[in-house]
Write a structure and sequence with these properties.
The complex is a heterodimer of chains A (373) and B (486). Chain A has 11 helices and 10 strands. By secondary structure, chain A is of the alpha+beta class. In chain A, the strands form 3 sheets. In chain A, strands 1-4-5-8 form a 4-stranded mixed β-sheet, with helices on one face. Chain A has a 4-stranded antiparallel β-sheet with strand order 2-3-7-6, with no helix packed on it. A two-stranded antiparallel ribbon of chain A has the order 9-10. Chain A is globular. Chain B folds into 2 domains: 348 residues, Butyryl-CoA Dehydrogenase, subunit A, domain 3 (Up-down Bundle), CATH 1.20.140; 118 residues, Butyryl-CoA Dehydrogenase, subunit A, domain 2, CATH 2.40.110. In chain B, 57% of the residues lie in helices and 13% in strands. In chain B, a hairpin with a 2-residue loop joins β9 and β10. Chain B starts with 16 loop residues before the first helix and ends with a helix. Classes of the chains: A alpha+beta (373), B alpha+beta (486). At the A-B interface, β9, α9, α10 and α11 of A face β9, α19 and α20 of B.
């Protein structure tokens, strides 16, 4: 299933993550700055990450969602926050790729960062969980304007473009997708929500105060964007699953290494059966989760006889597992695992945010069944 | 959004101790003073939690993240003014005369507000517990008197109980593990006392402490358990230093220090337990404090759940409140069920402490009589200290205490405490994670304080013996003897 192409990209990605992220990330996590994150993005342009999933005809590398997922897995193994920036950017790319030729020509080369001087980062705004954050259209002096607030937007301080989904009918069906430029009059970014996970990617409210929406901003037809949202979510969930596995894998590795060093009860703790059980369970979850997201992202190229692989399932399983893995990885470390220097507690903070992004597990389970009704 | 609008839990106006623990109603008939005082302690805890702690929770988390050495002395003064730090001191000496039940009723509320701040001001008492476990009258009386004086003067008086070493966490707390422990600190016998060299790790309030109580081995050639003693010294002693404060994931308001001892001299008189008896001392303290950490877990879980209930009752989804959803109600009920069951065990433990453990000493006839007869001026005087120093009295009191709290009692409480500690802290982790699944990503926003509780919870599964070590302990106490493999 993996071609030589993938291997090469993965190799580049691992080296990039180790050099540009891994070496600095614990210091950055204590005092994150937008400047550092932007600089990281600029460096990532040299290895082509921004345009990974964008067609070559628009300045990208025409890679699949699976390839993007594997890249994010490797980035997340150094910092899930870095992976989350790309997850939201790729999801936004996916939206635009569903747009018309003019839109693709306008946005995709920019999203691929192939012809821009500055960093061009995009993000996606899915439907809000709660009513008090509702985005809506209304008419003003013959113009169609967008108002409301997206309470938690990833890449908020980084993004130039926001791909926004709205639900005009309140039934989750009449979905409209629009693209908005940060520089459009009426777009404001609020204060950071202060997540203590994924800190290099601060989430913040984005406020749309009567932003004029011209027709060319609609991706697909107004009210008919359900399929676009669904396919964007599919990619997004797969990328979150992969990021969770990457982060959790590092937690496992650290715990495995520490268990072979730490002496307690008269022996290295790796010799205790309970520690072996914990580590074994972590590795099992990593194995099943990783093949789960790979299968889901490989889509129709893998034929499964009985089951269906969905990226939503992968997202639920991988992020649930990641939370469990990291909690146990800290436990194996004892008190040291709780301290910043060992790097596991950062993963603990990061994966809980990944766990809730794209919908919490109970909600996603329910959604799966509601769709069959 | 004001997170606290529903009158529930921390924000309910009525004492609900008897509602939560219905069997206490029967006890109230028989021991009205005992139960009424616990109800008052609960409301005092709740008032302090609401008025003093809650406004500071996130502020302190943020400040201590930037600077782990930050202390809010105004907060200290307020807690001190309300006697939150000397509740267990006999009333006649200026405290509140709390029983174990009172203490538990109080700390449940405090922990529900913030386990970090609570650990900062309450774990100080672990050091005091060290003295009471020993129950040498001259030590106990001096410490009580000093604490009361400090309270009156509004000055801090902190003790750091130092067990964990860089190379030994669990190993320093468990008898089986200690047999094979590799210590990082040693005390060498010299004329008139001991010289201590080495390190201690993850010491609560290590940088703020005025006194250190440390368990340390004296003989590198023998297994650690055979030479471990308990040493007491002021932090002004030459050779004592704080190497660093840790950057932790949570529990930020509670300082955690790495300590260095470089030829620290401790006179013989301040050796609380002779070499070889330090393990017993540790075990006896753990037999109390593990139950307290179980209660901490309960408070942590309650704090998370109560915030979630407030959040879910305000957020609207598809025309109704989040809390109106069926799955949310079932999840909340499931967590409430665990909290109710755990709480019953916590208070059972507290009442048992009053009946069988150190708390029963002041209730016992000689001590009770002494407290009744002696005037307050004498209780706080140096002449009482001098009297307590007399060898016959010291020996008699110590023997009296050991006859009340036997080794069997202590080991019994250690296993009960282990069960509570594991159940409480696992529940804390579980509930603090699950409530975020209910709120979804919005609940992760810093201002709601729920993700902070999630960060806090993880530490409690580790300290006071990892939950794995506590399980082994529990097994050995309950089953080990039966199967005869110890």
């Amino acid at each position: 299933m993996l071609t030589e192409d993938y291997k090469e990209i993965l190799d580049v990605s691992r080296k990039f993550a180790a050099k540009e992220i891994g070496q600095h990330i614990l210091d950055i996590d204590l005092e994150p700055s937008i400047e550092w994150t932007k600089a990281l993005w600029m460096k990532s342009r040299e290895v082509g990450f921004p345009g990974l999933v964008i067609p070559e005809s628009h300045g990208g590398f025409s890679q699949t969602g699976l390839c993007a997922a594997l890249v994010l897995d490797s980035l997340a193994s150094e910092c899930a926050g870095a992976a989350s920036i790309f997850a939201h950017h790729y999801a936004a790319c996916k939206c635009i790729m569903a747009g018309n030729t003019t839109q693709q020509k306008t946005y995709l080369p920019q999203f691929a960062n192939s012809n821009a001087e500055d960093a061009v980062i995009s993000t996606v705004v899915f439907l809000p969980s709660f009513e008090d954050n509702k985005l809506h259209f209304h008419e003003k002096k013959g113009r169609l304007v967008l108002s409301g607030k997206s309470e938690l937007t990833a890449n908020a301080f980084l993004a130039r473009y926001f791909c926004v989904f709205l639900d005009e009918g309140n039934q989750g069906k009449d979905i409209t997708c629009i693209v908005i430029d940060k520089n459009d009059p009426g777009v404001k970014i609020g204060d950071s929500a202060g997540f203590t996970g994924l800190k290099i990617n601060p989430f913040a409210p984005v406020i749309f105060d009567e932003v004029t929406i011209e027709r060319e901003r609609f991706i697909g037809e107004r009210g008919k964007g359900f399929e676009i949202m669904r396919s964007t979510e599919d990619l997004y969930h797969g990328l979150l699953a992969a990021s969770a596995m990457g982060a959790a894998r590092t937690a496992y590795r650290k715990a495995r290494a520490y268990a072979a060093e730490r002496y307690q009860y008269g022996t290295m703790i790796i010799n205790h059966q309970e520690i072996q059980r914990m580590l074994g369970a972590m590795l099992m979850k990593l194995g099943i989760g990783t093949s789960g997201y790979i299968q889901a992202m490989a889509g129709e190229s893998v034929e499964l006889p009985f089951a269906e692989a969905r990226s939503r399932f992968a997202k639920i399983f991988c992020t649930d597992s990641a939370v469990e893995i990291v909690i146990d990885a800290i436990q194996v470390h004892g008190g040291y695992g709780y301290m910043h220097d060992y790097g596991v507690e950062k993963i603990f903070r990061d994966v809980k945010v990944l766990h809730l992004l794209g919908g919490s597990s109970p909600r996603l389970h329910m959604q799966t069944i509601v769709e069959t009704m | 959004m004001d997170l606290f609008t529903l009158k529930y839990g921390l924000f309910s106006d009525k004492p609900d101790l008897l509602h939560n623990l219905p069997s206490l109603q029967k006890m109230k008939d028989r021991f009205p003073r005992y139960i009424k005082r616990a109800e008052r302690a609960q409301m005092m805890g709740r008032t302090i939690a609401r008025e003093v702690l809650l406004p500071k929770v996130l502020e302190l988390d943020t400040k201590c993240q930037k600077d782990p050495s930050y202390v809010d002395w105004e907060l200290f003064k307020e807690l001190n003014r309300r006697k939150a730090l000397t509740g267990f001191v006999p009333e006649k000496m200026g405290g509140l005369g709390w029983s174990a039940l009172d203490c538990f009723a109080f700390i449940e509320e405090s922990f529900a507000a913030c386990v970090g701040i609570s650990a900062w001001y309450l774990f100080n008492l672990f050091g005091v517990a060290c003295a009471f476990v020993e129950f040498k009258p001259e030590i106990c009386i001096k410490i009580l008197q000093d604490m009361v004086k400090a309270q009156r003067e509004g000055k801090p008086l902190s003790f750091a109980w130092s067990i964990t070493e860089p190379s030994a966490g669990t190993d320093a707390e468990d008898p089986l593990a200690m047999a094979k422990m590799k210590p990082s600190a040693y005390a060498k016998k010299v004329s008139g006392g001991y010289l201590i060299n080495g390190r201690k790790q993850f010491i609560t309030n290590g940088d703020l402490a005025h006194f250190v109580v440390a368990t340390i081995c004296t003989d590198p050639t023998r297994p650690a358990v055979e030479s471990m003693g308990t040493f007491y010294f002021p932090t002004t002693t030459k050779g004592f230093s704080v190497e660093r404060l840790e950057h932790k994931c949570g529990h930020k308001a509670k300082h955690t220090a790495a300590l260095v001892f470089d030829d620290v001299f401790v006179p013989d008189a301040d050796v609380w337990e002779e070499p070889g008896r330090g393990m017993r001392h540790t075990r006896e303290i753990l037999s109390i404090t593990r139950g307290v950490v179980g209660m901490l877990g309960l408070g942590n879980a309650r704090g998370a759940l109560e915030r979630c209930i407030q959040f879910a009752s305000q957020k609207k989804v598809n025309g109704h409140r989040l809390i109106d959803e069926n799955w949310v109600q079932i999840a909340i009920a499931d967590m409430l069920k665990d909290i109710m069951i755990l709480r019953a065990k916590c208070y059972d433990f507290a009442i048992a402490l009053d009946k069988l453990h150190v708390f029963c000493i002041l209730e016992n006839i000689p001590a009770k009589a002494a407290l009744k007869v002696l005037p307050e001026s004498l209780l706080m005087s140096e002449s009482l200290q001098a009297l307590a120093k007399s060898p016959w009295l010291s020996k008699a009191v110590s023997r009296f205490k050991h006859s009340l709290v036997t080794d069997e009692t202590m080991e019994y409480f250690a296993s009960q405490g282990s069960a509570l500690k594991v159940a409480g802290t696992d529940l804390a982790m579980n509930v603090s994670s699950r409530v975020l699944d209910i709120t979804g990503i919005e609940g992760m926003a810093y201002r709601y304080g729920m993700e902070k509780i999630y960060r806090d919870a993880k530490a409690s599964q580790i300290y006071e013996g990892t939950n794995q070590a506590n399980r082994i302990d529990l097994f050995m106490q309950e089953i080990g003897e039966v199967i005869g493999s110890c």
